[in-house]
Every structure is written in structure tokens, then in C-alpha cells.
Write a structure and sequence with these properties.
Layout (H helix, E strand, L loop, with lengths): L4 E4 L3 E3 L17 E4 L4 H16 L14 E9 L5 E9 L5 E10 L4 H19 L3 E6 L2 H9 L8 H11 L4 E6 L6 H9 L6 E5 L1 E3 H12 L2
Parallel strand pairs: 4-7, 7-8
Antiparallel strand pairs: 1-3, 2-10, 4-5, 5-6, 6-9
Helix pairs in contact: 1-5, 1-6, 2-4, 5-6
């Protein structure tokens, strides 16, 4: 017999002053999700909180964007025993505060490199959707970030996604692409894993779930 349990997933923490420039997204305050206690949902939550714990050890400290504006980080995550994957993205201000964050569930791409390419394109599109005009973009896939930075590998299996991303980025006044190590990308990775909890796209504006807030706090307080 399968028993469904109401699990309160989000305790959202407002990380800054109210947004003076409302976007197409409204603030999400809380959610209640029905789940089977033995399902993968609880496994994904365990992964997220493991990230929270590990983030406090050897964490790479937050550093402002070289553009002295916004920094957008992104990542992808593959869900075990599933035909789905997750994309996570977070836009932060120069002082480290959250501007916006997203978790999006997508069909499982044919390869990890294509998943990372999709995450990069989604991050740039997300920046445009929330209305920012300049940002640096960071991901932990070296081949994708090098391709975006140099405009390389356009004839590869993910070349069309690189081209799409660069075309989208050209709509910004100023942008850059750079690689970050995995320990410097735990917030985006946790958001990608969190996509498992939702039906499709979930967006937060200057307000994030408690587990994500804990990662941000660890990020800012790292030595």
C-alpha cells in the first residue's frame, strides 16, 4: 500500500529588500507537495541537505562579478532512475544577495554536455526575463564555458546550443563567461536537484527556500 504524505518543502527566506522592478515572475511563498515517503523525492532532499553540510567545509568564498553588477551561476543535474533532469540558476547581486533563482525540470537530454549547454542557455534567458542588462555567467563544465568564452565547438553536438546562448547574450549590454569549480557552484547545483520536487518551472524573486538560503550563507561566510 502506498501512503501519501504532505511534506512542506519550502520555508522561504527573504534575502533582501522588496524588488523595486517587478518582473514577469511573482514571489513564491511556500509549497506543499504530496509524496510517497519511499519515493525519489526524499532522496533528492537528502542530496540537497548533504550539499548544505559539505558547503561549509572547504567552500569557495563568494566573489563579486568582475563587471561589478550581477553574477549568474547555473548547473544541471540528472535524476537517478528517471527520464528527467533538472536545471538550476541563480542571479546574485555584487554583495552576494539573491536577485532571482530558478529550478526547472526538463526531459533527460542525450548527454551531460548537452544538459550543461541547456543550463547555460536557460541561465542567459533567465537573466533577460528578469530584466537585468549586464551579468557575468559561471558554470562548472569547462568545455561549455570555454566554448562560450571563445565561440568554439559550434559544429559539435552541442554547437547549436552554444550559438543560441551567444545570440541571447548579445541582447545584454555587457556579459562574460567563465568557469568555476564545483565547490563554487553548490547553490546552482542544489537548485538543479530541487527541480525534482516540482512539475516544471519554479522561480523565486529575492526569496529562496531555507535549504538554498543556508548554502548562500555558507558561501558568504567561507574563509
Amino acid at each position: 500500500m502506498v501512503v501519501e504524505t504532505n511534506v512542506v518543502i519550502d520555508i522561504n527566506v527573504d534575502t533582501s529588500m522588496p524588488n523595486k522592478h517587478p518582473s514577469k515572475y511573482s514571489r513564491i511563498q511556500s509549497e506543499e507537495i504530496n509524496c510517497d515517503p519511499g519515493s525519489q523525492l526524499l532522496t533528492q532532499l537528502q542530496h540537497i541537505y548533504t550539499d548544505c553540510i559539505s558547503a561549509s567545509k572547504g567552500k569557495k568564498k563568494w566573489s563579486p562579478s568582475p563587471l561589478d553588477s550581477f553574477k549568474t551561476k547555473f548547473d544541471g543535474a540528472v535524476f537517478e532512475n528517471s527520464n528527467e533532469a533538472g536545471i538550476g540558476g541563480v542571479i546574485r547581486k555584487s554583495n552576494g544577495e539573491i536577485n532571482a533563482a530558478l529550478s526547472e525540470k526538463i526531459p533527460l537530454p542525450p548527454s551531460v554536455v548537452i544538459l550543461e549547454s541547456l543550463a547555460a542557455r536557460r541561465a542567459v534567458l533567465f537573466a533577460l526575463e528578469v530584466g537585468i542588462t549586464q551579468s557575468s555567467f559561471e558554470g562548472d563544465s569547462e568545455i561549455i564555458m570555454t566554448s562560450l568564452k571563445l565561440g568554439d565547438n559550434l559544429s559539435s553536438s552541442f554547437g547549436n546550443l552554444i550559438s543560441d546562448t551567444l545570440i541571447l547574450a548579445s541582447s545584454l549590454l555587457n556579459f562574460s563567461f567563465s568557469h568555476t569549480v564545483r565547490l563554487g557552484n553548490v547553490v546552482a547545483h542544489a537548485l538543479a536537484r530541487r527541480a525534482f520536487l516540482y512539475f516544471s518551472l519554479t522561480v523565486w524573486m529575492e526569496s529562496v527556500p531555507l535549504d538554498i538560503f543556508l548554502l548562500i550563507a555558507a558561501d558568504l561566510q567561507a574563509p
